[in-house]
Amino acid sequence: MPQLTALHIHPLKSAYRLSPGSARVEPWGLAGDRRWMLVDERGKAYTQRENPAVGRFKVLPGEDGSLTVTGPDGAHLVVVAPSGAAGAERVNADIFGSVFEAAPAGEEAQRWFGERLPGVRLLHLDDPRSRAVSPEYSEPGETVSMADGFPLLLTTTASLAALNELIAAEHPGDEVNGAALPMERFRPNLVVSGTEAWAEDGWRRIRVGELTFRVVKPCGRCVITTTDQETGERFHEPLRTLAKYRRFGKSLVFGQNLIPDRPEGVSGDLLGTVRLGDEVTVLEEGPRPEPDRR
């Protein structure tokens, strides 16, 4: 039986991960996931795409919504969560053309980040209902955090093993001492073991523990996957091999995007909880698309 074997939360978009044993699920994603984001002077998301050093900032969310940040230089910062409802300013933020409102952090936080990443500002998604999921893939009223586009991202260990085999066959020893790519390169929320490689390509609806999720869109991958999440160093893989074996149209695909279903009778923000060891059941399947081979 497939089961959930890893959980990852990224409180600050593109920064270092947390890997808890359980996580609360909200309509817009895992609780605390990607509720903070750095932006440039135009309000556009500033991530590891622009600067791999973003991934070396470590963060810990507080029960009061605050964020404790440790920079690559070891310096610490505690940021109080701003709220438009409490009178904080709200400004436009932009993730790939998806524009929504968020609240800037206080001046101390802006100075602290500006000293380490010149020209950036720190924003907080104080109202997660302010950013809609693309209507092409969602139901009316469904929203998302500051993730790239969807509430959750799922990957499988069997597909990673298959990808690493392809990389080893195509370019033996080309990565760091020939080491296999770790799953953290792909920054998923849910990692599932016990499946066949690429089985998730055909999933349409799944159950993880007590909750169900719609599998709405494959995840197209970018340069972040080539970035060592510990050092910030960049490499060729996995994009070079994905381009040969996992090209679907214009996208190089690894993983699937999910939207959680609202359980019957649940009306609040908490939909339920997922835990390591939860069984994963495929409820609906469709045909697996064939990659474009070039």
Which helices and strands, and how do they pair?
Blueprint: E1 3-7, E2 22-26, E3 29-30, E4 36-39, E5 58-61, E6 67-70, E7 76-79, E8 91-95, E9 98-104, H1 107-116, E10 121-124, E11 152-156, H2 157-170, E12 190-193, E13 203-208, E14 211-220, H3 239-245, E15 247-248, E16 251-260, E17 272-275, E18 280-285
Parallel strand pairs: 11-12
Antiparallel strand pairs: 1-12, 2-3, 2-17, 4-10, 5-6, 6-7, 8-9, 9-10, 11-16, 13-14, 13-18, 14-16, 15-16
Beta fraction of the residues? Answer: 25-35%
Mean pLDDT: 95
Number of helices: 3
Radius of gyration: 19 Å
Instruction: Give the uncertain stretches in residue-range form.
Output: none
Helix content: 10-25%
The class by helix and strand makeup works out as: mainly beta
**Largest sheet geometry:** 8 strands, mixed
The SSE string, one letter per element, is EEEEEEEEEHEEHEEEHEEEE
Number of strands: 18
Which outline best applies?
A: globular
Termini separation = 35 Å
